[in-house]
Amino acid sequence: MIWLGSCKDADTPAEEHNEQAFNNTDMERDADFVMKAATASMAEIELGNLAMANGALPEVKQFGQTMVTDHTAANEELRAAAQPKNIALPVAPTDAQLKKAEELRGKTGADFDKDYIDLMVKDHKDVIDAFEKEAEKGNDPDLKTWAGAKLPALRHHLQMAEELQQRLKK
């Protein structure tokens, strides 16, 4: 997951809705987490599709497929958890996330594999940290539970990416 600070460029109407609805409330932090988690998952889906198309190693292509499958399901779950709380979700990754995808789009083969997997390792470390914080300090019990429930899969993604990263270094 590409976890970047601001979601404002991802979906201004959703961001504006959430700011108006939750500004200075207990749910503000949770709504911000939901926005970031959603854009990060959408970016993972985009990058996973690129990995299936541009990757050289079958394992990188399979990792990309896993990202598409798992993050599509996670976004559906997140949408179901956010809707009753009136948290608006973005419709696309952030501009910064799309820029990362565009940089990778021009690469193929071993160059793509290395850069994609390096990005996956870095981003999964960032995402795990954010999900741990939400699971511990979030205000909404449903979102806290959801974040905690996603941690094993995220840690598994990181482990898979680190193993691929080591293989690519050889």
TrEMBL record:
Residues in coiled coil: none
Domain DUF4142 per the UniProt entry, residue ranges: 29-164
Gene3D superfamilies linked to this entry: 1.20.1260.10
Entry superkingdom: Bacteria
Entries under InterPro entries matching the protein: DUF4142, Ferritin-like
PANTHER family (UniProt xref): BLR2558 PROTEIN (PTHR38593)
Protein name: DUF4142 domain-containing protein
Species whose genome carries this gene: Nemorincola caseinilytica
